[in-house]
């Protein structure tokens, strides 16, 4: 299992929730506002998650964060909607 820092786990959880709610990924500004950090720091957290293979993104393209496989061990379990 991949080890994450407390902040990386919080950013990961935010990404999962944001994408589930809006259907697209947040901007660095959105992440920064959520965690009260500057967008550059948000980018560094995203780059760290990318380096660990948890997500991917297209450099230079807005809202291009793609989460890893749904079976990834850090992913929140899906709850069926009835």
Automatic annotation (TrEMBL):
One of its GO terms (biological process) is proteolysis. It comes from marine sediment metagenome. GO terms for molecular function: serine-type endopeptidase activity. This is LexA repressor DNA-binding domain-containing protein. Residues 1-63 form the LexA repressor DNA-binding domain. InterPro entries: LexA_DNA-bd_dom, WH-like_DNA-bd_sf, WH_DNA-bd_sf. Pfam families: LexA_DNA_bind (PF01726).
